[in-house]
Amino acid sequence: MNRHITPWRPAPNRPNPDFDARLEPGELHLWRIDTGEGGADPDRCGTLLSEAQRARVDALRHDTHRARYTRALAGLNRILATYLDRPPAQIRIERHPTGKPYLDGADRWLSFSFSHSGDLALVALSAGPDAALGVDCEWVRPRANLPAIARRLFEPATVAELEALSEPERLECFHLAWTALEADVKCDGRGLFRPRPPGSAAPEIAHLVPAPGYIAAVACARLPPVETWRMLELCD
After folding, report:
1. For 25, which DSSP code?
2. With contact defined as beta carbons under 8 Å apart, do 220 and 28 qualify?
3. CA distance 85 to 80
């Protein structure tokens, strides 16, 4: 298992008329969103959501989860709006039958992937013919059923590697494997328990720490060099 993890190299940027939102083919932009209590006001964020997004928020049972998800979706819309040059509430996100979100029509040039966990959301963006990508971030925390989850999700070799590690190492490596798997299936949109389509190659995958206590993975057919990734902070 590859344990190399790239640290977050913050370059705070506020989406405004002076922000350079150009995204060239082969580039990767990563945006970090604070979805916790220190983030944007959820009531104001709610005005930036589409009807479909509001319905997804309303389906959540707990106030904390609704507030986090509202901040995450509003942040996603604001970020996409910056690249597409339109108001956030006018962003229209379609979904494939397997659930993979995408932009259609004139916006199809922009590929994105979105993940949220705990008080953090992460958005990855790319453009061009090899632009399909997947991102997953997870809050690293102990899980009572970790061995059972591992046996359900991972190949036997990965399970054996996890079982041979000490508890602290096992927790980190579990989240490395989990985020890599999620980013992989998000990249081609096949779904978590479906095999890779025949003839399709596995994407390149790299890990990063988007915030203390979190691990994330990015998957793309051709990942640009890590040192060229642009890491951005969504400011309220």
Report:
1. T
2. yes
3. 8
